Amino acid sequence: MTDDTDRSPRPTAAQFFSVARRPRWIAALVLALAVASGFAALGQWQLQRSVENAAAPEIDTETPVPLETVAEPQRPMTDASIGQRVTVSGHLVAGDFVVLTGRENDGVQGAWLVGHLVTDDGASLAVGLGWAPDADAARAAEADVPTDQPFTVAGRYLPTESPEVNDVEAGEQRALSIGELLNLWAEPGPVFAGYVVLAEPTPGLDAIHQPPPFRDVSLNWLNVFYAAEWVIFAGFAVYLWYRVVRDVWEKEEEERTAAAP
């Protein structure tokens, strides 16, 4: 352990500033402050970026728009299109109906009836036609679905689901997976990546609960970390000036002590 008597003495404020106020070290201080200001500005910029990234994007999902303005067949869904209320016209294909079980509607278990809409442009779109208390009721409602006339879809556009939630052993289909529906439909054309849940169900079914989408946003902690780093660098620039000035004083003090008789 180093004895306290071996350590260099700490200068008093007057002794420190006797060196610090020399033109050379005043200029060095100005430079250190300029560097610190640059680092602080970079830190502020990083912090602003973290806050901007955390701001929820303002997307109007409740005003219905034509489906083709937010989605295209054979193209992945965009974040902006998720949960968007859309409209599209076409006709429902007879025989291409699927019943999905284990579907909750406002907390109540039941079943969905899903149809295959061929749009006026010839694209395939999965449509959640409505909810029923059980699979039998959903299948019974299939007879009331109009397949012999034009059909206009108006509802919320949602992303495909993973088929992994299906109970294969029990033969139950629970997920609305576009990939699986393609294997069940008789003549699928170019297909949309998502599906639409009708705002107004077809006869014999209840409306499927479809709340507005919740867009998860979080603070960008990487930018916050970078901002903290820049602040530390700014403080270090000023400390480095202080340390150099103190070293100069200590060196001069040692020289004076050595020169003393």
UniProtKB/TrEMBL annotation:
<keyword id="KW-0472">Membrane</keyword>
<protein>
    <recommendedName>
        <fullName>SURF1-like protein</fullName>
    </recommendedName>
</protein>
<feature type="transmembrane region" description="Helical">
    <location>
        <begin position="221"/>
        <end position="242"/>
    </location>
</feature>
<keyword id="KW-1003">Cell membrane</keyword>
<dbReference type="GO" id="GO:0005886">
    <property type="term" value="C:plasma membrane"/>
</dbReference>
<comment type="similarity">
    <text>Belongs to the SURF1 family.</text>
</comment>
<keyword id="KW-1133">Transmembrane helix</keyword>
<dbReference type="InterPro" id="IPR002994">
    <property type="entry name" value="Surf1/Shy1"/>
</dbReference>
<feature type="transmembrane region" description="Helical">
    <location>
        <begin position="25"/>
        <end position="45"/>
    </location>
</feature>
<keyword id="KW-0812">Transmembrane</keyword>
<dbReference type="Pfam" id="PF02104">
    <property type="entry name" value="SURF1"/>
</dbReference>
